[in-house]
Amino acid sequence: MERTFVIIKPDGVQRGLVGEITTRLERRGLHLVGAKFMLVSPELAEKHYGVHKGKGFYEGLVKYIVSSPVLAMVWEGDNAVVAVRQTMGATNPLEATPGTIRHDFGLSTGRNLTHASDSVENAEKEIALWFKPEEIVAWNHDGDSWIFAKN
Fold first, then answer.
1. What is the pTM of this model?
2. By CB distance 3.0 to 4.6 Å, which of 13, 81, 95, 106 could disulfide with 102?
3. Is 115 a catalytic residue?
4. How far is CA 31 from CA 54, 85, 107, 126, 129, in A?
5. How far, in Å, CA of 123 to CA of 117, rounded?
């Protein structure tokens, strides 16, 4: 099973969308294997968004992510990275497909509710940055045979 990293950003938490977002991921067939409701330290924010350092939006992005609590999560499932990104929609909510989280609840890129890893490699790095191995719970979901085809 593949794992991916998701953050419900401060706007998603402040708008009361944590349940809606996690419900959509569960209904998609993904399994939650790690979660932390937390305030992000400036140090963690700078490491997480380090790839954007030097870009015009970097300082604002760091300031924003540390401004209010977030829900950091690890999700697991077949093709989890792609499945989560499809569920979230395009980074710009105005370009997101109807039915995606960002389309249904967002209006601007600067307040697009979530972060989701864009590749398996980045998911592994982000999970390691945000979670200790013992904070991730491996478990078997009895309904997997009704979601993932093995025939």
1. 0.93
2. 106
3. yes
4. 36, 15, 28, 18, 20
5. 5
